[in-house]
Amino acid sequence: MSQRSAENALHKPGAKPATCPEDITRENVQAMRRMEETALANRSRADRMAAFIATFCGSMPFVWLHVLAFACWIGLNSWPGLAHWDPYPFTFLTLVVSLEAIFLSSFILISQNYELRISDRRNQLDLQINLLTEQENTKMIQMLERIAKKVGADTADPEVRILEQATDPEKLIAQIEQAQRENPLDAKAAAKA
Predict the structure, then answer these.
(1) pTM, rounded to two decimals
(2) Is there a single domain that holds both residue 140 and residue 101?
(3) What domain range includes position 74?
(4) pLDDT at 94
């Protein structure tokens, strides 16, 4: 395969070949944006509704709307000479606010669950890319080792021998879990960070 066809294979069909690092990073950013747009387009109706409600509830117009509504409610039910449908201690207002809190918390949890699913997918993608990169690096070290032997270069570095071995993710997980068992405070501090 020629270098030109290898470069073209790295890019989306019809895209210009990269001429600088910014071209490559721009394509990566656009690929992630396309992935996010696809995820947003494929949301269920419930996820879209929950996201809209959670976004609105986290805004200042929502706060001001409630300030105005509560002020009117309390004012109308406290003003002398007016008929009070919910006199002090505003029991019906308390019921309405409690019901609103139940529904809002449900919508916010639905929205957070969707964000968690997206975050898990990103983490999985990140893990797969890291594993692929590790495998590629290991292969490159092995190839460089063979080239060094062929040209007669010194290859007695013990670290190279270790690094040219493939990394076993299961062993890494076991080492992390063992370190967390030995130093539970460090694990808690890392989880909070």
Answers:
(1) 0.60
(2) yes
(3) 45-154
(4) 96
